[in-house]
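## tool: complex_structure
## caller: assistant
## args:
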Amino acid sequence: MTAHRRTLIHGWLLLLPAAVLLVGFTHYPAVATFLDSLFSTGTVIRPSRFVGAGNYRLLLDDPVFAKVLLNTVLFALGTVPAAIALALVMALWVNRRLPARGLVRLAYFTPTILPMIAVANIWLFFYTPGIGLLDQIGARFGLPGHNWLGDTDTVLGCLMVMTVWKEAGFFMIFYLAALQTLPPELFEAARLEGAGRWVVFRRLTFPLLMPTTLFVLINAVLNSFKLVDHLFILTKGGPDNASNLLLYYIYETAFSFFDTAYAATLTMVLLALLAVLGVGQFLLLDKRVHYR
Amino acid sequence: MSRVEVQGLCKQWGQTKALSEVSFSAEAGSFVVLLGPSGCGKSTLLRLVAGLETPSQGRVLIDGADVTGRDPARRGVSMVFQSYALFPHLSVAENIVFGLKVRRVPAPERARRLAQAAELVGLGDLLARKPAALSGGQRQRVALARAVVAETAVCLMDEPLSNLDARLRQEMRLELKALQRRLGMTVLYVTHDQTEAMSMADHVVLLNGGRLVQEGPPEELYAAPETPFAARFIGVPPMNLMPLSVEADGQVCLAGDVERRPLFAHSLPEGCRLGVRPEHLMLESADTPGQGILVVVDSEDYHGADTVVGVRPGPDLPDPPGPDTPPPIQVRLPGRVRLRRGEALRLRFAPADLHLFGPDGRRQDPLPRILPLATRPA
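## result:
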């Protein structure tokens, strides 16, 4: 055996453990899901058969899918910009010389450390009609109680507020790290030129943070599609699918309705959506991002 | 043109004193260099003048007006940072006019001043580039253009040439000086490089440990250093400070001189040091009888135009040199000089080139009468 072949085999053997895991748990399931989406769900009486794009045509006539998709988009639009803006404001604030700066930073980061299940339970108490924190505060000002999570008009908003609260601290850490790498002379130079706070933020800080913003944006969008934990605790997608999101709908379809083929189809939609968003963000924003 | 004056400036961070009681003034249109080793407080001093730091005590005056508490933007100063502090996401042109835009200078005037500044520092065809696409020297020019375009009367420069290679630094020294003359700016220039100070300054302010050591024109600092620190900081290689020993009979001679030749007509206190610049020392053949102090060659360092020879008093080299052995006396000789290590020579100097520092570390002026070395003790 030549030395070259030996190196080759050696290399592949080193790659093998990671490759096995990756193929077994990522690539194979992805392909299998795609294949599943082309077949009907098999039952005892009717075995699975090839339906081609049949499942995808079903999507178009599914009112719940339309509703869920709209919810997901609204959820992303409602949480992503708000969480990023809040994260940036918090980072700018705790980046300054404050008394007990470490404590303040920790306080803002706490929601990130908590598991989503715990967060959902806390917020469940906030939103509980009558005895919840929100209604108790409202009662002080003579406002009538409100079933926040039971009302189709408010439930999605409630989830958004909670998600922003949970996510912002995490993104703040990235902004804070980025802010600390910016050379202070840049800001001193701007100060000598007479630039006020707002000009410094608009013309310097924000553009210089663009790489972080892009990173955070992609993560935030992906997260907004991936988050379902809170639905299990808070609403289970209700009432009347008003808070149902795509991933939760996939879960329901697969494990409550046992329609695995349709769930596979929905999964492909989610994957396609994420891919388009990810690539789109890179292409659109890359030109506007200055990497140092 | 503006006059900058600093009165009793102190800066303290907690227990650390960065600057204590520094006062000097920079005449309008002059090039003033703040010189000192790293950590001597020269950058702090510049930042206090700029208004980027607030002094613990003292005042900063520009054209007679007290600007100590004034916002940096309203002091009428521009600044070139050591790191250049260019905005990486803006083009060269945008970098230069950043301040004009902030101050809402109308677009046509902005364009005119941009063209002028770019022309002045030679950046004409690079205006559309981003700083990352420029060489160190070009970035330096952008930083300079940004300071020039502001058309302030005072320009502060914090080691602007320290990131350039030796050759470029020399070119930029000349250019900077020419630019300063042409625009008539008052420049406060921070550097740790005495060559820059000597070649560019009209006035040098030498600092050490947060205190002002000496100030004056470069010629004065070279010719009459007030302290051993000033003596050694200015001039390359640094001035030789040779310990003197007082003999039992009160005669003063060079420590280590085996022939114990008296140097002065009368006695001096213990702990004095004699300073001579390497370029003012001469070496002669040991055979010449009675001409100078007997020394041996320790080292030689060839520089091209000259050779720096290290010699030690005495007929023998200390072997091995102990921790208390004084450093060799450096002698700068023109051209290539080939000497054997251990070779015996005679060291000579002219009385006019001597500097005497007392035990208190102050310059002794005038010098005590110096005996001609040729006179051997009876």
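## assistant note: Residues 69-288 of chain A form a domain with the MetI-like fold fold (CATH 1.10.3720.10). The mean pLDDT of chain A is 85. Handing back to user.
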